[in-house]
Write a structure and sequence with these properties.
The chain is of the alpha/beta class and 251 residues long. It has seven helices and ten strands. The chain has a single domain, classed as Rossmann fold, CATH 3.40.50. Keywords: ATP-binding, Nucleotide-binding, Transport.
Length: 251
């Protein structure tokens, strides 16, 4: 096993309370531009997040809201270990994500994080069941177990009759539910969802939120949404404005 592979051992104590924590986190991006000769020059620096401190506990369903450009997506990427902060620390299941390699962070996500992307990111050539089972292949799970687990989750999100359908044969809402099932397939400690009800009708959205509430009983669930109904179903709401934590409310 390589040194990168051993940087993060999957020994997180699942009984502990805090799953992910931000301490004085800021994230800045430098915009680049091309000169008329085709050379790249550094442009202005943009602050996407500034001095964010928070902790997400096991058993919580936390909502994040704010206008476009407020930093919601940047915060989700940091919580999931998809990005690292410019300053401050993000501690995900006992690991400061800035101290490990990109390969180790990938393994950290695979072992502990489920993500529902706003754009779904389903592979068009694979069936719904095969899309859901993909993370289990990376974990070395056998084919029979993968199929059984993926089938159970698709039934759980109301797609038991769409198991063999490919994404192109599914509606936007059905693709969203496949993405939710895939995020849950590894039984993650942290589930992150970006606009999880955005493509769903009211009834299906309620069904997905019911699933989130159920699984939040023993893990942390974070969702960013413009949907007031979805935000109202959360235990706690973090409101962002211009990259700063403007307000926090509890149910």
């Amino acid at each position: 096993m390589s040194s990168d592979a051993t940087e993060h051992e999957t020994t997180f104590d699942t009984t502990q309370s805090t799953v992910v924590r931000c301490a004085e986190v800021s994230r800045e991006y430098t915009r680049h531009r091309r000169t008329r000769f085709g050379r790249r020059q550094d442009g202005p620096t943009v602050t996407a997040l500034a001095e964010i401190s928070l902790a997400i506990q096991r058993g919580e369903l936390v909502g994040i809201e704010g206008p476009s450009g407020s930093g919601k997506s940047t915060l989700l990427h940091l919580l999931a270990g998809l990005d690292t902060p410019t300053s401050g620390t993000v501690t995900l299941v006992d690991t400061d994500i800035s101290t490990v390699s990109q390969r180790a962070r990938t393994r950290l996500r695979l072992d502990h994080v489920g993500i529902v992307f706003q754009r779904f990111h389903l592979l068009p050539s694979l069936s719904a069941r095969a899309n859901v089972a993909l993370p289990l292949i990376e974990r070395g799970v056998g084919k029979s177990t993968r199929r059984t687990r993926a089938t159970e989750l698709l039934e759980r999100v109301g797609l038991g009759d769409r198991i063999t359908h490919r994404p192109g044969e599914l509606s936007g809402g059905e693709q969203q539910r496949v993405a939710v099932a895939r995020a849950l397939v590894t039984d993650p400690d942290l589930l992150i969802a970006d606009e999880p009800t955005g493509e769903l009708d009211t009834s299906t959205g309620e069904q997905i939120l019911d699933v989130f509430e159920e699984i939040a009983s023993d893990r942390a669930v974070v969702l960013a949404s413009h949907d007031d109904f979805a935000i109202e179903r959360t235990d706690r709401v973090l409101r962002l404005h211009d990259g700063r934590l403007a307000e926090e409310t509890h149910a």
